[in-house]
Amino acid sequence: MNKNAAYYIKQLGLTQHVEGGAYRETYRSECILDTKTLTNAFSGPRNASTAIYFLLSYGEFSAFHKIASDELWHFYTGNKLTIYEIETNGNLITHKLGSNTDMGETFQCVVKAGNWFGSRCEIENGFSLAGCTVAPGFDFSDLALADKNILSAQYPLHRLLIESMCY
């Protein structure tokens, strides 16, 4: 059997994510961090850590967004996933998440808290299955989806990329 995107979506029980792609939460720490231990970026207590499976097929993208925590990405299978991260100073970092280390791909990368980022599988007919670990743990109240006009005005050098990866 060909293990394609549809196979993993079914086998792992993935559902549509608001930012694009398919996901399923696999872990949520029982340890709760009190607001006194967190920065002002958090509106309330958070689980110490969370983890998800995340899958993107060719032609899909994870829209530019930011969260209040660092996000550690892990490559599992499929094709290279390109993660575009815009630092607050406007510097663009292009992470190549994958298994071909000879081509500069890495099995893990980190997107820093508060940076805008989006991702896509750029291999025609391909897919990327990854995992994301967030600490302090992810909460949808910490998610900000980018407005392409506002983000493009803030980072005009990256306008074409931003416009291609926003809803």
List its traits.
167 residues, mainly beta, Jelly Rolls, 6-stranded antiparallel beta sheet, 5-stranded antiparallel beta sheet, 13 strands
In short:
The protein has 3 helices and 13 strands.
Poorly predicted segments: none
Largest sheet: 6 strands, antiparallel
Helical proportion, percent range: 10-25%
CATH class term: Mainly Beta
Mean pLDDT: 97
Structural class: mainly beta
CATH superfamily: Jelly Rolls
Distance between the termini: 34 Å
Strand order of the largest sheet: 1-2-5-12-7-10
User: What value does the Rg take, in angstroms?
Assistant: 16 Å
Task: Count the beta strands.
Answer: 13
Which fold name fills CATH's third level, the topology? Jelly Rolls
Q: Please, how many helices? A: 3
> Which percent band covers the strand fraction?
35-45%
